[in-house]
Amino acid sequence: MDATEIANKMRRLHDLHRLGHAYILLGESLTVLRQTAHQIVQGLYCSRVSPSGDACQTCDECLRIASGNHLGMTWIAPDGASLKIAQMRSAWSADTRKASGVTLRMIVVEDAQKLTVEATNAILKWVEEPGENRLFLFLTVSLAALLPTLRSRCALLRIDKNSLNLQETDDDGLFALWPNKEEEDGDFAKVQAQFADALSLVLELGQSLATQEPHGWHAVADRFAKMNFKAEQGYAIVDLLIAYFRDLIAVSCSQPVSHFRAQIRQLQHVAKGEQIDHYARIAVELGALRRRLSSHVQVATALEAVFLQFQRESA
Ligand SMILES: [Zn+2]
Fold first, then answer.
1. Which domain of life, per UniProt (predicted)?
2. How far is the CA of 221 from the centre of ligand 1 (A)?
3. What is the dotted CATH code of the domain comprising 3-158?
C-alpha cells in the first residue's frame, strides 16, 4: 500500500470503530515514513476530508498537525542515537496526565528501530493497555530491529511504494551476496525481508563510516545485535559494506557504480571527491577484516573495531 491508501484504510477503520490501538509502519526511508504518518494523523483528525479521502491541509486540525502543535498528538523522536527509557517514560506519564476533551490521542514513535531494549520493555504495558482512544504508530525501517514482544503487540502496515526492488538489486549482484536464498522451509519472503533489513543497515553503517559520525557505531550497534544475524549473514554484511565503499569511490570519481545502482541517490548524497583516500582505506580495512572472519570472531565486534579506529583518526 502507498501512503494515501494506508491513510484511507486507517480512517475507514476509525469510522467503523475498528481501529486497533498499535501499528508498526514499515517503510524504506524515514522521510517516507514521516510523510505517511502525517497523512494518517491528518486523515484521522481533519474536519474536511475530501471524498477521495485526502485531508484538506487547511483546517485548524490539519494546520496544527503540520506545525507539530496538535494537542492530541505526541511525536517522539530519538534523543541522540537512541530512543531512551527516560524519554519514553516521560512521554507515558505526560500522556496519562493529559486533559481529556480530545477524542483520539496519537503517539507516534519515529525511528522505532532505535528503541533500546530497556525502553522497549518499559513501554510494553503502555502499548498493551494504552487507555481509551489511544493510537500508537511505530515508524521503522527495520522490522527485525524491533523486539518480538513489541512486534507481537502491534499490527503491521507496510509501505510498498518506493520500496526496495529486489529484482533490480539482483541484477546488480547485491542480492547475490546474500546467503541462504533457498532455505529448507522455502520461506523466500523471510529471506527477502532479512536481506532488505541487512541492506538498510549496510547503508546506515556505510554512511556513518564514510562521514565519520562521532556516534556512528552506537547508532547501529543495538540494531545490529537485535537482528541476530547468522555467521554467514554477518560475513555477507561485510561484503555488502565493501561493495558500498567501492561504489562510493566510483560515485566520487563520477564513474558508474556496479552494485548500489538502485541506491545511487543515497550514495551521491554521501560521496565527497576529496574523501576518496578515506573511502579507499576503509575498503582495504574491511577487506582485511573479511579475511580474518571465522566462526570464532563476532562480526559486530570486528566492525566496531574498524569504527573505533576511524573515529580515533578523525578526533
Ligand atoms: Zn483538514
1. Bacteria
2. 40
3. 3.40.50.300
